[in-house]
Design brief:
With 391 residues, this protein is mainly beta. The protein has no helices and 30 strands. The chain has a 5-stranded mixed sheet, with no helix packed on it. It has a 5-stranded mixed sheet with strand order 5-30-29-28-27, with no helix packed on it. It has a 4-stranded antiparallel sheet with strand order 7-8-9-10, with no helix packed on it. About 7% of the residues have low confidence.
């Protein structure tokens, strides 16, 4: 079984986004069950933050000091995160830098292949080989477009204008969060202003999601979690949610709303279709004024990144190298710092800030002062270097 893993990096390593997947021809195997000859690892790096960069395929998991510029590398005009589905990689612009949904595959020679582009797409979700959703605001703020991820062709649209709230000048569905679980699509509903277009301008102190039946496209209902706002951040490759090994969907609010306040993680448990009102992880409980932008849930623990100092309301120190990784016990909420690695940049647009490969957990590190731009792998409570990009 051939698999592809994605790693993305910035200013050296935009984060190593690991595209973890089994071949689309074999859905039965689980990573780690067997030797997987022909596995591919894709690394994305940027020359400067959000600038041009390179996407490169490796035939094995990189180790030691590596370069991400090879004859088979693809140079791209813009780097702002990467996602994956099985042996496909998806980014939010094509190689020329045009906005939309770009699909890449890896050729037999290790080159990165253009596998289709949908212009106008912003936030998106690949559910399976033939089912996908995306937002194209030019087609309607309360509409979701459907597409076929195999052919990369738009297949229709779903109209949710029934959600329109009187008196709200800017209302959009799926801009910040699109996620799926157990046959249902969960799409964030943002109430904001025309001036800010749904970024940091939340009108209400709550989170609202539309629950949609994937098979029929019908709106089932809306669900609400009070006391937090600013769920997700729809401009990047970071999807701001994760599916835990417990079957629950975990969503992150970075708290970017009228400054930076009350960042948190909430969830929808396995077998349920409403928020678990008894559960919340607040960044302020571990560092007052911090913000959460990544998570991985495994073995009763939630792994995330927390700053060592408070973030300023104007975000002026958000990019400071003050970020550490922690394991938070889901039952007790007690945290344990992951030692062995330098402090890092905020995960920002990196959807693979924390990622599991073959049962091992990897953490992205970007620390220019120490010339660290790569991944560390967890060994007990300590992380050790996996590889470092020297470009």
């Amino acid at each position: 079984m051939k698999r592809i893993f994605l790693l993305s990096a910035f200013a050296g390593v935009l984060g190593l986004s690991l595209l973890s997947s089994c071949s689309k021809n074999d859905n039965s195997a689980t990573p780690g069950q067997e030797e997987n000859k022909g596995d591919k690892y894709i690394l994305m790096t940027a020359n400067e933050k959000w600038d041009e960069g390179y996407i490169t395929a490796f035939s094995g998991l990189p180790s030691g000091e590596i370069t991400n510029i090879k004859p088979t590398s693809l140079q791209v005009a813009s780097v702002f995160g990467i996602r994956s589905y099985k042996d496909w990689a998806f980014v939010r612009s094509n190689a020329a830098g045009d906005a939309g949904l770009q699909k890449y595959t890896v050729g037999d020679d290790g080159s990165i292949k253009d596998a289709g582009f949908i212009s106008g797409s912003s936030q998106f979700l690949v559910v399976d080989e033939t089912t996908g959703f995306y937002l194209d605001e030019t087609r309607g703020l309360l509409k979701l477009q459907t597409f076929n991820p195999t052919t990369m062709q738009r297949t229709g649209e779903l109209d949710f204008s029934s959600l329109k709230k009187t008196g709200v000048e800017y209302e959009v569905i799926g801009k910040h969060i699109l996620a799926a679980k157990e046959g249902k699509l969960y799409a964030s509903v943002t109430y904001g202003t025309t001036q800010s277009a749904g970024y940091g301008d939340d009108l209400y102190n709550n989170v609202v999601f539309a629950v949609i039946d994937i098979a029929t496209g019908k709106l089932l209902n809306t669900i609400q979690y009070d006391g937090i706002k600013g769920m997700g951040w729809g401009s990047s490759g970071n999807k701001f949610w994760t599916l835990g090994d417990d079957g629950a969907l975990y969503f992150y609010s970075p708290g970017f709303s009228s400054g930076l306040t009350n960042s948190a993680i909430i969830r929808i448990k396995a077998g349920e279709a409403d928020f678990d009102k008894s559960f919340i992880i607040k960044a302020d409980d571990y560092q007052q004024g911090s913000t959460i932008g990544t998570a991985l849930v495994k073995g009763g623990k939630l792994y995330t990144q927390i700053s060592s100092v408070p973030m300023k309301p104007d975000f002026s120190n958000l990019e400071s190298i003050v970020w550490d990784y922690y394991a938070i016990d889901l039952a007790t909420k007690q945290s344990t710092k992951i030692d062995g690695m330098p402090q890092s940049h905020y995960v920002w647009a990196n959807d693979q800030g924390i990622i599991e490969l073959d049962g091992k957990i990897y953490f992205w590190v970007d620390n220019p002062g120490e010339k660290k731009a790569g991944y560390y792998v967890l060994n007990g409570k300590i992380a050790r270097p996996a590889f470092n990009v020297k470009d």
